[in-house]
């Protein structure tokens, strides 16, 4: 019997605390990747919750997260898939994702997650990494990513926070 892992991917909150709080309250998941530019918002949203989030949050600092001790990149395995995650500003992602994909592939990652551009992206077969994925910006359009992993295969998608 196959088991499915659901992963949320959030980036570039930039003060949209209300939308982040909605997401943390209403989405279920097995894990979250928080790709920076809004660590203040994440800390505030977690503090305002009455109970802890029931899944781990893998977080990195973005270019607007000065003063936070969080790393700028990381690796995490889920259901047979190795994820490389970063904000993206150190990899020049506004000019393309080849450098990011190559760095992810050098680390053995199957998927590279990034933010910074505020634009949704899904590109397969870039460099040595199989896939690069950007959830878009929670601030600009209320977009976040949802990845489901079943038997080592990933399905990528996007959702939006409802308008209030």
What features would you highlight for this structure?
164 residues; alpha/beta; Purple Acid Phosphatase, chain A, domain 2; 5-stranded mixed sheet
Segments where pLDDT lies below 50 for 5+ residues?
A: none
The CATH architecture name reads: 4-Layer Sandwich
CATH class: Alpha Beta
Say which CATH homologous superfamily is assigned. Answer: Metallo-dependent phosphatases
Largest sheet: 5 strands, mixed
What structural category characterises the helix and strand content? Answer: alpha/beta
**Spatial sequence of strands, sheet with the most strands:** 3-2-1-9-10
How many beta-strand segments?
10
Apparent shape: globular
Q: What value does the Rg take, in angstroms?
A: 15 Å
Order of helices and strands: EHEHEEEHEEEEE
Number of helical runs?
3
Whole-number tally of structural domains: 1
- How much helix, percentage-wise, in residues? 10-25%
Estimate what percentage of residues fall within beta strands: 35-45%
CATH fold node name: Purple Acid Phosphatase, chain A, domain 2
What features would you describe in this structure?
The chain has one domain (4-160): 4-Layer Sandwich (Purple Acid Phosphatase, chain A, domain 2), CATH 3.60.21.10. It has 164 residues and is of the alpha/beta class. The chain contains three helices and ten strands, in the order E-H-E-H-E-E-E-H-E-E-E-E-E. It starts with a strand and ends with a strand. Strands 3-2-1-9-10 form a five-stranded mixed beta sheet, with no helix packed on it. Strands 4-5-6-8-7 form a five-stranded mixed beta sheet, covered by helices on one side. Helix 3 links the parallel strand 5 (81-86) and strand 6 (111-113).
């Amino acid at each position: 019997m196959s088991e499915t892992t659901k992963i949320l991917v959030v980036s570039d909150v930039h003060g949209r605390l209300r939308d982040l709080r909605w997401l943390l309250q209403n989405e279920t998941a097995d894990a979250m990747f928080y790709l920076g530019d809004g660590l203040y918002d994440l800390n505030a949203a977690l503090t305002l919750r009455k109970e802890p989030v029931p899944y781990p949050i893998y977080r990195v600092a973005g270019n607007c997260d000065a003063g936070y001790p969080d790393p700028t990149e990381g690796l995490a395995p889920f259901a047979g898939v190795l994820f490389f995650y970063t904000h993206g500003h150190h990899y020049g992602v506004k000019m393309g994702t080849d450098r990011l994909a190559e760095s992810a592939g050098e680390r053995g990652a199957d998927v590279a997650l990034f933010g910074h551009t505020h634009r949704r992206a899904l590109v397969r077969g870039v460099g040595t990494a199989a896939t690069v994925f950007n959830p878009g910006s929670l601030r600009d359009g209320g977009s976040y990513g949802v990845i489901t992993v079943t038997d080592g295969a990933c399905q990528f998608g996007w959702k939006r926070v409802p308008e209030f």
